[in-house]
Design brief:
3-stranded antiparallel β-sheet; alpha+beta; 50% helix
């Protein structure tokens, strides 16, 4: 996608929101970025569908949408703001290096951010990558629903508890979806056993939006 042209302030706020895991309140943004997403900048990103904003109390709480994450991905290959100086050019050079790493490791930006916030980039044998690889082996196209029964069969000797935890981590990402089978009568005993429990709900199907 071609990115909407933003000034330094809006870029910093969107990228700052991304580094906070895609969701944060204005006080959290101020502590992290030194600014808040308010006024015209907030109205603009809301209107463009990049961020949703709610005000449960005295402060706004913002969440990147799928289009917002896509904007951040594209911005990784963007050019520094004209008034960014040598520091801005250097930082955007670092962003391009991150984009190259994500492409080489076949990782989404959202997955990278979640893993980094949990204490480091994904290891080569991370089960979340194995799950993605297994999904694309089974799915005919993006957003196909794949039974966890079939997915687990592709994962070999990866321990059940590691797969379950990896699935729960992946579900927090904007491009990954886990749902229960709507027609429970179609489920076999193996399908029920292969489900992953998230928030007390047994989920049987996985869909991923894009590689």
């Amino acid at each position: 996608m071609k990115n909407t042209a933003f000034g330094t302030r809006e870029r910093a706020l969107l990228l700052g929101l991304m580094t906070l895991g895609g969701t944060a309140s204005n006080p959290e943004l101020r502590a992290h970025v030194g600014d808040t997403l308010d006024g015209e900048p907030r109205r603009r990103v809301n209107k463009l569908g990049l961020v949703t904003s709610e005000k449960p109390g005295r402060s706004y709480h913002h969440t990147l949408t799928e289009d917002g994450w896509a904007w951040c991905v594209t911005e990784l290959e963007g050019s520094a703001p004209e008034r960014g100086g040598s520091l801005g050019r250097t930082l955007y050079g670092v962003l391009r290096m991150i984009k190259g790493y994500l492409d080489a490791a076949d990782l989404s930006l959202a997955e990278f951010v979640v893993k980094a916030r949990e204490g480091g980039a994904p290891a080569p044998d991370d089960p979340t990558k194995a799950i993605r690889d297994a999904y694309w082996h089974l799915a005919r196209e993006p957003q196909d629903w794949v039974l966890l029964t079939h997915l687990r069969a592709q994962l070999g000797d990866v321990p059940r508890e590691e797969v379950d935890e990896a699935l729960r981590q992946l579900e927090r990402l904007p491009d990954v979806h886990l749902v229960p089978e709507a027609d429970q009568k179609t489920l076999t005993d193996e399908d029920r056993e292969s489900a992953v429990v998230v928030g007390g709900v047994s989920k049987h199907l996985l869909a991923i939006e894009a590689r």
